[in-house]
Amino acid sequence: MTDLRRVAIVPAYNESGNVGRVVDELVAFDPGLDVVVVDDGSVDDTSRVAREHGARVLRLPFNLGIGGAVQTGFRYAFEQNYDIAVRVDGDGQHDPSQLGAVLAPVLAGDADIAIGSRFAGPSDGYRSSRSRRVGIRLLAWVVSRIIRRRVTDTTSGFQALNRNGIALFARDYPHDYPEVEATVMVFRHRLRAVEVPVSMRERAAGRSSITTLRSIYYMIKVLLAIFVGLFRREVVPEEGS
Ligand SMILES: Nc1nc2c(ncn2[C@@H]2O[C@H](COP(=O)(O)OP(=O)(O)OP(=O)(O)O)[C@@H](O)[C@H]2O)c(=O)[nH]1
Ligand SMILES: [Mg+2]
User: Fold this and answer.
1) pTM assigned to the model
2) Alpha helices, DSSP H only, in the chain?
3) Number of structural domains the chain divides into
4) CATH number of the domain that 104 lies in?
5) Least confident of 45-59, 83-97, 209-223
6) Which ligand ends up closest to the CA of 209?
């Protein structure tokens, strides 16, 4: 792996209480990994803390939302010619020590994108609210029907990608709650995706953006977006078309 240029993309919105540890853990996992924190217009000290811990910071001038923040990271990775990217949330829920497992299928050349799934292996006791668990499973069911392959966790942002994956997400990435639509996109582009069982931690500090009401709103929005997306002639619009 040492001859490959590799970057970690860390979207962060008001994560000053978490992002320092995330950067430290990423560097501890792989000292050759360039860590890029995309500060999504935070109003706290996210940028300063990330920089103090040695990350490169891309600071967006205002809050774009998670999809825009993540796509910014992938554009950077594409333009800077990285071979491998990992995506890790800035809230500390993804454990960088599990990146070895997530990276393995990509490094072996078996997948363009590997997605850490909370539900692919034996239950790890990951808890989230009942409404969110139901939502995650329903979305996984719908997506599995569409792509005709079983996926268990379409909402996970814990991922590793090769250059094909980086190029796709640099060109097009969905907006709010983007991972579900992104999963469909990956399969429609015939990229090879696999799930890898992981466990996820509780958010250490700060607050999740996703309340019960919001999960219901997101469910409806994401389902609509997936169905509308199925009628797009070009899956990803060409520049200028
Ligand atoms: N909420 C939110 N998060 C953003 C935004 N931009 C970037 N992020 C980052 O995206 C990551 C995922 O957001 P979370 O709010 O933790 O969403 P989640 O992990 O699906 O939800 P929880 O499991 O409840 O934490 C975090 O690292 C955020 O800091 C934004 O506009 N809103
Ligand atoms: Mg989170």
Assistant:
1) 0.91
2) 19-29, 46-52, 66-79, 99-107, 130-147, 163-171, 179-188, 212-230
3) 1
4) 3.90.550.10
5) 209-223
6) 1
